[in-house]
Design brief:
Helices cover 79% and strands 1% of the residues. By secondary structure, it is mainly α. It has one domain: Growth Hormone, Chain: A. It has a two-stranded antiparallel ribbon with strand order 1-2. Helix 7 packs across helix 13, helix 8 crosses helix 13 and helix 8 packs antiparallel against helix 15. The chain starts with 6 loop residues before the first strand and ends in a 7-residue tail after the last helix.
């Protein structure tokens, strides 16, 4: 194991499986509400932007700005999560998001919004989100037994999809059609209630330091060294970053694809997202079953292939129903990918290093998203939205082949997760 540490696993009162079940339920409840707020916002933000401008570069730039904080702050926020109580970090982050998006709702009511104001708000929300999401991921191994990691990750993916897409998407578009400020005010309420629900997760969730307190710089270096010394994690991070860039080429333009290429209205755009949410739910529930029936390597590569085929087909589809079903297939496949990668991270990374390693991972992976969004906007300006979906699909198919061959030497680790990290 690369790197040493002066920390050990957090001391938390266990009280049997029933206590852990209750903790998971509170975490799932909080995640459901915060993801509902996210889902409303992720539809309302591009719709508000599209009501201000139809410039594809500015629309894609808004998506890039939302993810830019992961490139700038993910590593630092990951180190922060390893120094503080993770539940408290989530609580404060959700309250902060409630204030930020609530303020935006008031500005929309006052008709005082510009595209640049949306950029600023997206940047602020993204910065706080790096803390909230890193802390939530770090909490998972503390609230579920080790043999239930894949199931717990599937449940978290389910509530994320239900909140963000299945409910949040349609609710965001419908409330935006009523009046533009309404989805942002609902978004704020969702974050506030999510913060309150975290109070139900009792226990300590801060890694206990057994030696001298290390500086932030030293702790960051420790996380980077561990990741660099684990060949499998490095390869998975590279694949995830490439996948994020390739998919975001097209996803950043989804609102323009829906409104201009398949001619949906602003209200029905949420229904389009609803089909994607349904696909995501299917993916979340089938991922654990697929990994029990087949090797994780096979399921991972097969899912990436499905993602690529879906976007390639969307590039030529003219029927809204067909396009929606294809997007649902993409959502199902990408959720399976996320469940597998999330479970491997939880199994491979030691708890006391998890926040820092996850921060480095997300700096690379989520930092690729704004790059993909901006490239997608530029390509759409020159070639059109449909061409961008085709390019994205082909890139994902090429990535699937690369993943299959690159993981050939790690089949035992991937399929058994036997190298699971412990301090």
């Amino acid at each position: 194991m690369v790197g040493t540490s002066s920390a050990r696993l957090p001391v938390v009162p266990m009280g049997g499986d029933g206590v852990k079940d209750r903790r998971l339920r509170w975490l799932l409840g909080s995640s459901a509400l915060s993801n509902l707020g996210d889902g409303i916002g992720k539809v309302a933000f591009p719709l508000l932007a599209a009501s201000i401008t139809r410039d594809p570069i500015l629309i894609a730039g808004l998506s890039a700005t939302a993810f830019l904080p992961w490139l700038l702050f993910a590593t630092v926020s990951g180190a922060l999560v390893d120094r503080v109580d993770r539940r408290r970090a989530m609580l404060i982050a959700n309250l902060s998001r409630a204030v930020i998006v609530g303020g935006l709702g008031l500005l929309v009511l006052a008709d005082a919004t510009t595209i640049w104001l949306l950029y600023v708000m997206a940047l602020l929300l993204g910065a706080v989100e790096t803390v909230a999401d890193n802390a939530a991921q770090a909490l998972v191994p503390a609230v579920v037994p080790r043999d239930q990691l894949e199931s717990a990750n599937g449940k978290l993916q389910s509530v994320e999809i239900v909140g963000q897409t299945f409910l949040g998407g349609p609710l965001g578009s419908l409330t935006f059609a009523v009046f533009a400020a309404m989805p942002f005010l609902l978004n704020s309420a969702g974050f506030a209630i999510a913060a309150v629900l975290l109070i139900g997760i009792n226990g300590r969730f801060r890694p206990v330091v057994t030696g001298p307190t290390q500086s932030l710089r030293v702790q960051l270096g420790e996380g980077v060294r561990w990741l660099r010394g684990n060949a499998l994690m490095v390869r998975l991070a590279v694949f995830a970053a490439t996948m994020a860039l390739a998919t975001e080429l097209a996803q950043a333009l989804l609102v323009l694809y829906a409104l201009q290429d398949i001619h949906l209205s602003e209200a029905t755009f949420g229904v389009f997202a609803l089909v994607g949410g349904a696909g995501g739910i299917i993916g979340a529930f089938t991922a654990p079953r697929l990994t029990r029936a087949l090797s994780r390597r096979t399921v991972l590569v097969g899912s990436i292939v499905c993602c690529g085929l879906a976007f390639t087909a969307m590039s030529v589809s003219k029927d809204p129903v067909t396009a929606s079903l294809l997007f649902g297939g993409f959502a199902a496949a990408v959720v399976v990918v996320n469940v597998i990668l999330g479970s491997l991270r939880h199994a491979l990374v030691p708890d006391h290093l998890f926040g820092r390693v996850l921060g480095v991972w997300r700096t690379a992976v989520w930092g690729a998203i704004p790059v993909g969004a901006l490239l997608g906007g530029l390509l759409a300006t020159w070639l059109g939205t449909r061409a961008v979906f085709a390019i994205s699909g082909v890139l994902q198919l090429a990535l699937a082949a690369a993943v299959w061959f690159a993981l050939a030497g790690h089949r035992g680790e991937v399929d058994s997760m036997s190298t699971a990290g412990t301090p």
